[in-house]
Amino acid sequence: MEHGAAATACPSDPALAPGSLAPDFRLSHPRNASLSLSDLRGQPVVLAFYPPGWDPSRGEQIAQYNKILTQLPNLHAELMDFSVDGDWYDLRFAREQMRLPFLANPSPQPEIAQLYGAEGREALFVIDADGVIQWSYRAPVGVPPKTEDLVEALRLIAPQPKEETAAPKAPRMALTRRDFIAATLAMAFALTLGAHAAQAEPEAARMGATPMAPAMGVSGGDTMPITLTVNDAAHDLQIDPRATVLDALRERIGMTGSKKGCDHGQCGACTVLVDGRRVLSCLSLAVAQQGKKITTIEGLAQGETLHPMQQAFLTNDGYQRGYCTPGQIMSAVGLLTEPVGPEDADVRENMSGNLCRCGAYPNIVAAIQDVRKANTNASV
Amino acid sequence: MNETMDAAVGKPMDRVDGRLKVTGGAKYAAEFPLPNLAHAVMITSTIAKGRVAKMDTSAADAAPGVIKVLTPMNAPRLPNDPSYSPGGASGRPQDRKLSVLQNSAVYYNNEPIGLVIAETLEQAMHAAALVQVEYKEEKPALNMGREKKNAYKPKAANQEPTDTHRGDITSGQRDASRRVEQTYTTPMENHNPMEPHATTAVWDGDDRLTVYDATQGVFGVQNVLSRIFALPKSNVRCVSYFVGGGFGCKGSVWSHIPLAAMAAKSVGRPVKLSLTRAQMFGMVGYRPQTEQDLMVAAKSDGAITASSHASWSNTSTFDEFVEPTAAVTRILYESPAQETSHRLVRLNYGTPTFMRAPGESPGTFAIETAMDELAYSLKMDPVQLRLRNYAEVDPESKKPWSSKSLRECYKVGAEKFGWDKRTPAPRSMTAPDGRLLGMGMASATYPVRRSAASALARLLPDGTAYVQAGTQDLGTGTYTIMTQIAADALGLPVERVRFELGDTEMPETPVSGGSQTAASTGSAVKQAGLAARDQAVQIALADPSSPLHGMSAADLDVKNGMIFVKAQPDKGETYAELIARQKLPKIEAKIQSKPGEEKNQYALHSFGAVFVEVLVDPDLGEIRLNRIVGAYGAGRILNAKTGRSQLIGGVVYGVGMAMMEHTIPDPRTGRIVNRDLGEYHVPVNADIPDIDITFVDEVDTIINPVGAKGIGEIGITGVVAAIGNAVYHATGVRVRDLPITLDKII
Amino acid sequence: MHPFSYRQASDEQSALSGVSGQPGAAYLAGGTTLIDLMKLDVQKPSQLIDITPLPWTKITELPGGGVSIGAMVRNSDLAHSEIIMTRYPVLSEALLSGASPQLRKMATTGGNLLQRTRCYYFRDITTPCNKREPGSGCSAMDGYNRIHAILGTSKHCIATHPSDMCVALTALDATIVTRGAKGERRIPINEFYFTPGDHPERENVLEPGELITAVELPAMPFTGRSHYRKVRDRASYAFALSSAAVALDIQGGVIKDARIAMGGVGTKPWRALDAEKALIGKTAGPDAYKAAAEAALHGAKTHKDNAFKVELAKRTVIRALTMAAQKTA
Ligand SMILES: Cc1cc2nc3c(=O)[nH]c(=O)nc-3n(C[C@H](O)[C@H](O)[C@H](O)COP(=O)(O)OP(=O)(O)OC[C@H]3O[C@@H](n4cnc5c(N)ncnc54)[C@H](O)[C@@H]3O)c2cc1C
Ligand code: SF4
Ligand code: FES
User: Fold this and answer.
1) What is the pLDDT of residue A374?
2) Which of 3.30.365.10, 3.40.50.300, 3.40.50.620, 3.40.50.970 is the CATH number of B32-139+194-245+250-279?
3) What is the DSSP letter of C149?
4) Chain B closest CA to C5's CA: distance in Å?
């Protein structure tokens, strides 16, 4: 994961670093509707990229971004309503109306994601009214940015607050919001919001909420500065020594792929690799991992290509509820480099540190054996 | 044109949510990133009965990062206090009496008595440990044997009659040549889904509440929260896209859910409350302990002449839940004379609840072990004995079965297993390595349930569709099978259908429990899909620009998103073309689907037969499963892959119940001593052998529009007895008290 | 978890000085015991000295034929080391029967020696426990005690020592090498642990701040013929109800020497010296093993829920001896 502000946006591509002009592109539609990014000049734009493929919680996330915007004074970016008119979406924001080409067709425009180095990942670009990237964020799917960071970035593009007056309560978007989200979900990316900062008038936060508190550190208690290397990205954290790797991943960094089933080393749901060895992150202190390489479930896939073990779990239905799954997969990946005999019974014994309450064990064994057999065949 | 082509249903399609699950992208209730989130940690009681006399929160209040400490003394009073919910015999998940800091009474150990809200999880946990509690303690009732004299008769046994009586038991017994009379006991068990219960609560202003909750029923949560906080239902939203296991314990609304909402309200911030594993032993339900007296009498040819099943289980001192163990005995075999009953014993533990196949799991253990004992007593093959007493109609109601393939299940199961190689005498078979080999079998059964459910299907201008029902996917494959059902109903390939669930803003569906989702929500999804398709067809027929204009619907079919003339498949148009020409934003149908008369006219059940081979170390008593074969008649299997997984999962759950699961309260304090996954043993990978699942073909046109009977629970039934019967065959030791651990057989 | 400060030791000296005069300080190795107990508030150190950077990660052959195992060697690495697998199979087997693959990758040799009991009440700070809080009483005595000890108990504590590794080390006559304020100490494992007696809170002879640096295994020609047998409630990932580590020196069918230690039944890793004596000079076979098992369990004292352990432990010993005898030395 890369943080715009903290750890330069897209080190691989200086053209995407904060301060550079956002690459232009055209959203095209089979039937001629189209819109360029440059058409939106004069208003801040937040670009959100998601890999193709479906994720029910994405709607919540977009709603969350939307809500953050509503709570930021002076941005007036709240999506109030939406309707479809032929090939266009009509989006009504608190202050204005805009049209977007209808992109419900899940024919992604991969070249745009490519342009932004966002293929197979989640990415967020905050672009100011001049079309300049102010902040960016890219991470494997399922790892949203810390809201505090996003809020900070959005503050940068919001005009200075003037006098505040009480705002009326905004209507809840109820189903219309869902429709919008549902229709845009399957896209390779979603252009979720835009607003005329220029038209901003003094008005306080919306939806009856108080303005966002500033980004919050851990108050009280002694914390330590550490750098955690997770999936090859460095995370600078100011952390309570009591925090385990698991809680640091889930609650601080926002990587919730590693699961907490017991918090006491008794279930294996929190398994990650540290320097290639499978260990339990719930019994490992975050402060003790400096200089070590942590690999989590989010770090296995290469872009859109799943790790063979992930693919094997999918094909063999090696899960049901899916909560133990990341731990099972990390454990299985760790197992591949260990001295484990060839039989099913060997796999069973060596996967016994990962409980599965759905009883997917036979399918898990089958998945692992598939990968092991493929590996032996490949090396012969 | 109302029949669908089954292009997708039944196929072993990979899960549509599989990719998210294997990449860590699936977001569970505690994983929604919310700005300004605070962490709550619960404080629980350490006595089983009495009241909280004093809570000293000064150290906690002063601890770094603490925002608020809530206790029975200072917690906000709720508009409708759920300590006084209806509760009672109905066992309705939304009626539970809850402990949400409205008074200081303590009814069980590990009951919520406080809440600490802090900036970070570490701070909240630490502060919770700093709170000093003083109690006024009373003597709790903890022992079922001791309290059995105060047992009472509940009004109902979880939707079934409490007691039944048919025929003349005395004369039935007189006609018999053999009689088995035994008591079978099962301990408390905890569901222990891998995902701990968690609720994230967010208020918009002071009258709109959103909760992200690990629940089997989003609408139940909405109902209860709107009642407790006196809000219109439409102001409460519950979201649950992924649930990391429930098995029944996430079917009810328990105390932590309103507590999270209360906490969020009182600090004016979003609050996340996850239970620790230890806190899951008490306040979120469990399977109650049971004591079951069985009597089965039969003639020398095996014909049962009389049977009885008297069952006791525990409930809490303040609410009621009945484990309906005897219900299965009423329908499993012919028995001209029979008595069954359920009694409850009040103990100072939390309220028990539905746990995978409530009633049937412990019930089949008892009756199917008794049947094995009867078979030995009659010197008869256990399968033969069951066939001899095969119930051609429901022996209790005398209604015909909507379908029943149990005979086929015995046959297929026995053949695949090699039952004919079994020599009946205990200890008569050994494995090459010298271990004792045992083979046992039992019948499995579970009723088919269905409730009213709604769904919405929407065809979009681009030729895709999305379909919604506010149901839940507990890993049962709901996302996937509903996508398959909807695709077939709409005449679209699965890739072009997206199914959404887990949100109270979607059409209302029932709780995901009792194996009813496929039947209830599946029927609704199918009917909504068909209705949307029919609408599209009607629009085309009426549109003069359509190539289909003026034709009759009966002549048309839809496949691959194309409406076409059956006799002339290249004549037609696609949904996308139709919608574009019509300049419609969508074509949409929302319907409600309800069970009809079938329940009154037929008896609705799934059946199966399960065969188990165990190897037992003759000295050390270690029991290892060698293989399990199960054959089931469960109606339509909507996805061969996830269906098989479901059955395997049920069987594995049964392995746990048979061989290790046992919630152990301290005899003095009622505090569960093994409140963790280290000492509450569930099966690990090494415990599980090859499991061979067969679904026998079963076409049931009566039961519901999708023809599915539900497969979430039948897997756990029968297998427990089958394991016990195999252990008896191997060792000659009959264990009638679960779990069957090695100390009971050495 | 109570707040603490955290520091990494860079070398032995910085580790020792980190804890000396710091009553609240504790060493952190794999953390699988310590962090677990800190989460339960059973242990509340105010300072953690992380000793994982210390270089005691090697398994080396000693001049006299023995083996030295660094205190930081992880359980999985030790189990899979060639020299241990061939010369001391009982140790490898014991390690691999313990915990889970992930835990074994974390757990260290030193930490394993010092792991704490799994007694339910010890792990629950809301209940009385003499080991955790001297003088508060023993909840297990009249509580639920199926997993508790039958050997070495006192009227103050009946908690089992849970380790598998230590049972094998006990059978192998290991020596624990430590470094403390007074310099190096070499402690035979049989003198390392205390039985609870009147002071269940005192579990071993280590002085505050004393560091374990290594474990040494003596040269023992017959340990190739050794075996560990563990009996538990599920097939894997469970603590022992009973276990036995044995080594046999059999020549011409006669037992010349023997080592027997038991787990899951004792308040410390339980060396069965009487049982060993009962074997020496006897013809290897069921009769001798049975006599040894009887001797091993002599004096066992049971409680309400653990009476089955007496018979189970005997049979475990017999099985382990039988299996060891079948191996070629
Ligand atoms: C769920 C679970 C299941 C388990 N199952 C088993 C099992 O079946 N069999 C089994 O044998 N074990 C089992 N264990 C226990 C496990 O083996 C121990 O926790 C582990 O060996 C402890 O080693 P560690 O390095 O993690 O110790 P730590 O937790 O780091 O330390 C333990 C104690 O030793 C001290 N210490 C550590 N190293 C040194 C040193 N070099 N010098 C001085 N003091 C030191 C620490 O201060 C601490 O007090 C299980 C543990 C868990 C959590
Ligand atoms: S057995 Fe020992 S550890 Fe357990 S409660 Fe008693 S004193 Fe404490
Ligand atoms: S959460 Fe770490 S092992 Fe269970």
Assistant:
1) 95
2) 3.30.365.10
3) -
4) 14
Q: Report CA-CA distances (Å) from C116 to A107, C152, C168, C189, C267.
A: 59, 16, 17, 16, 11
Contact A359 B121 (CB under 8 A): no
Residue B537 has pLDDT above 70, yes or no: yes
User: What DSSP string describes C187-218?
Assistant: EEGGGTBPP-TT-TT--BSPPTTPEEEEEEE-
C-alpha span between C59 and A284 (Å, rounded): 24
Chain A closest CA to B375's CA: distance in Å? 31
Q: Which amino acid is at B89?
A: A
CATH topology assigned to domain B374-449+600-744: Aldehyde Oxidoreductase; domain 4 (3.30.365)
Q: What are the angstrom distances between the C-alpha of C106 and each of A275, B639, C28?
A: 12, 41, 11
C231 Cβ inside 6 Å of ligand 1: no
- Write out residues in chain A with pLDDT < 50, as ranges: 1-11, 102-108, 161-220
Q: CA B725, CA B728: separation in Å to the nearest integer?
A: 5
In this prediction, residue C199 carries a pLDDT of 98
Q: How far apart are CA A186 and CA A179, in angstroms?
A: 12
Q: pTM to 2 decimals?
A: 0.93
The Cα–Cα gap between C246 and C167 comes to 9
- List alpha helices for B336-491, DSSP H: 360-378, 382-388, 406-417, 478-490
Answer for the pair B124, B39: CB distance below 8 angstroms, yes or no: yes
CATH 3.40.30.10 for the A2-179 domain, yes or no: yes
Closest chain A CA to residue B628: A362
Instruction: Report the C-alpha gap between B32 and B502 in whole angstroms.
Output: 14
Whether B511 and B216 have beta carbons less than 8 Å apart is answered as yes
Pick from A22, A245, A50: nearest CA to A139? A50
Taking an 8 Å cut-off on Cβ atoms, the answer to whether C120 and B746 are in contact is no
| Domains, in order of start, for chain C | 5-50 (3.30.43.10), 224-325 (3.30.390.50)
Superfamily of segment(s) A188-299? Beta-grasp domain (3.10.20.30)
Q: How far is the CA of C304 from the centre of ligand 2 (A)?
A: 15
* Chain B residue whose CA is closest to C144: B666
Provide CATH 3.30.365.10 ranges for chain B: 18-26+452-594, 32-139+194-245+250-279, 374-449+600-744
- Tell me the average pLDDT across B206-210: 95
Cβ separation of B24 and A83 shorter than 8 Å? no
Residue C322 in tokens? 């039988």
B713: annotated active-site residue: yes
d(CA B21, CA B16): 10
Angle between helices B218-228 and B256-267 (to 10 degrees): 50
**Residue B37 reports pLDDT greater than 80:** yes
Bridge partner list, B316 = none
Both structure tokens of A90? 């009509």
Ligand 2 centroid from CA C165, angstroms: 22
Q: Element (H or E) spanning C89, and its range? A: helix C89-96
**Do the beta carbons of residue C31 and residue C174 sit within 8 Å?**
no
Contact C173, C218 (CB under 8 A): yes
